[in-house]
Specification:
single chain, 248 residues, alpha/beta, 2 domains, 10 helices, 6 strands, Putative nuclease with RNAse H fold, DUF429
Length: 248
């Protein structure tokens, strides 16, 4: 089985893609690329049996409705979204709140943070994938699933914070060591050093591993009451087992 992980950024320079081959003997990183443009990402997504993308797949439904009404000059109650609680309803998706409740980690707001630039790029990639005939379901039921590497790491009992940015490269190296200790069946091969130098590359590997969890049904089930909104806003796949279950 081949899974792909994409640590998406607004521009190719900070975008990483990982390909992981899975077999009864173990899992090995076949390829790990930094500076990935749309052509390379789509090539990888088409090849994968399941892919995970670290980026919001959609925007909060209340935010979309609010902007649409504002554009038409038809916001019924200007006070409805006033204050912190009101803005929170606009800024956060259902899956963001669900993820926070279960992991104590809060994803970036696609409506009120710079991650929105990345989500615009992601929307274009998903649209092209659908035009190519791939099954695209923002809830994760299709060819791709939305993932959140920090949440995956935390669910697997691994360090999930403090390894981002160049100043934390020592923590990144430690995170790689902890991952390989927890998953001795995983081989980074020639890309071991790249994972220790680039948190983007490391997150792409975690995204590909999370895609494996999704493909095997080893993630939190999507609550029925959130199924409809998940197909619109996107849904973060949260691992529900130990990391060993990926290879078992």
């Amino acid at each position: 089985m081949l899974t792909v992980g994409v640590d998406l950024a607004a521009e190719p320079a900070k975008t990483a893609v990982a390909w992981i081959d899975w077999s009864p003997e173990g899992a090995s990183v076949r390829r790990l690329a930094l500076g990935a443009d749309d052509t390379l990402i789509l090539e990888a997504l088409r090849e994968a049996e399941k892919a995970g993308i670290d980026c919001p797949f959609g925007w909060p439904e209340p935010f979309v409705a609010f902007v649409t009404a504002h554009q038409a000059g038809d916001v019924a109650d200007p006070h409805e979204f006033a204050g912190r609680d009101g803005r929170r309803r606009l800024a956060l998706r259902t899956t963001d709140i669900f993820t926070h409740d279960r992991t104590d980690l809060m994803p970036l707001s696609v409506a009120a943070d710079r991650i929105g630039h990345t989500a615009m790029r992601c929307a274009g990639l998903l649209a092209q994938l659908a035009r190519d005939g791939q099954s695209v379901d923002r809830s994760g039921a299709g060819a791709v699933a939305e993932v959140y590497p920090a949440a995956s790491l935390k669910r697997w009992g691994l360090p999930s914070r403090g390894y981002k940015r160049a100043r934390n490269v020592d923590s990144l190296r430690e995170s790689v060591d902890v991952l390989l200790t927890a998953a001795p069946w995983l081989s980074l091969g020639e890309y071991d050093d790249l994972c220790r130098r680039s948190d983007d590359a490391f997150d792409a590997v975690i995204a590909a591993m999370t895609a494996r969890a999704v493909s095997r049904g080893l993630v939190e089930p999507l609550p029925e009451e959130h199924a409809s909104v998940a197909r619109s806003e996107g849904w973060i796949a949260l691992p529900a087992t130990s990391i060993d279950a990926l290879h078992g």
